[in-house]
Structure formats: structure tokens, C-alpha cells
Design goal:
Largest sheet: 2 strands, antiparallel
Number of helices: 6
Structural class: mainly alpha
Helix content: 40-55%
Oligomer: single chain
Strand content: 5-15%
Length: 134
């Protein structure tokens, strides 16, 4: 399927969850996050588990449990969060999985590659600390 930028709902939830967690000085429960993001608790729990397995979150179980960052917010980029949940961003200039043209005369010129590169660079330079400042 032709896509300019792939971002699943899970990745969007993960990015937003990480920023909310970065803003907090306390543990944040998955219920609280799900309510804030108007998301399914079950779906969000899977996302949070992936972020924990990816080394970005730590969790504590129990009634007073929740999630906190595994490292300082200043050391976690949005790109790292994206890649844990989505995999690497494509940086090539083709919308298709298998190119259908010679790319010399693409109808979109270099637009796809420029947009992907700009998104990559933004995510790579923006930390959770940057994203969580109001």
C-alpha cells in the first residue's frame, strides 16, 4: 500500500503515553493513561508492555503501581520510542513497497524522501524532555 509515513495507532499511543509519563513525578497507571488518551486499556497495556520490553519504561504492579521512565527524559528521543513500536522509518523516496517507476521521473519528485527525512530528523532530535515542556 502506498504510504508517505507509517504510524500505527499503537505508535501514536506510545508516543503520547511516554510524554505524559515524562511530565509526571509519580507513577502513572495504565488506567489513568487510557482515560487521558481515550484509548482501550487492553490496547494501551500491550503498547506499554512493548515499551517496557524495549527498555524505555519500568513498571510496578499492584494498587499503587504504574509506569515510569526507565531513563531520564532527556536521553530518550521520540525516534527511539517510534522504533521500539514501529521499527525503522523508511527514508527512501518511493511510496510503494516495490518501486513501479525508475524514480528519475517520479510524479512526486523528491517530496516523499524530503518528508520522510524531515520526520526522521524531528523525531531524532526531539527528546521526551523537549516534548513534555509546555
Amino acid at each position: 500500500m502506498a504510504q508517505l509515513l507509517e504510524m500505527s495507532e499503537a505508535t501514536a499511543l506510545g508516543l503520547h503515553s511516554m510524554v505524559i509519563i515524562a511530565k509526571s513525578d509519580e507513577l502513572i497507571s495504565s488506567d489513568s493513561l487510557a482515560q487521558s488518551l481515550r484509548a482501550s486499556r487492553a490496547h494501551l497495556s500491550k503498547v506499554l508492555k512493548s515499551l517496557s520490553e524495549g527498555g524505555l519504561l519500568t513498571s510496578r504492579r499492584g494498587p499503587k503501581g504504574g509506569y515510569t521512565l526507565a531513563r531520564p527524559a532527556s536521553s530518550i528521543t521520540l525516534l527511539r520510542v517510534y522504533e521500539v513500536l514501529q521499527g525503522p522509518i523508511r527514508l527512501d523516496g518511493c511510496l510503494f513497497d516495490k518501486p513501479i517507476c525508475d524514480r528519475i521521473h517520479c510524479v512526486l519528485g523528491d517530496l516523499v524522501e524530503r518528508v520522510r527525512r524531515e520526520v526522521f530528523e524531528y523525531l531524532a532530535r526531539t527528546t521526551l524532555k523537549d516534548a513534555s515542556t509546555d
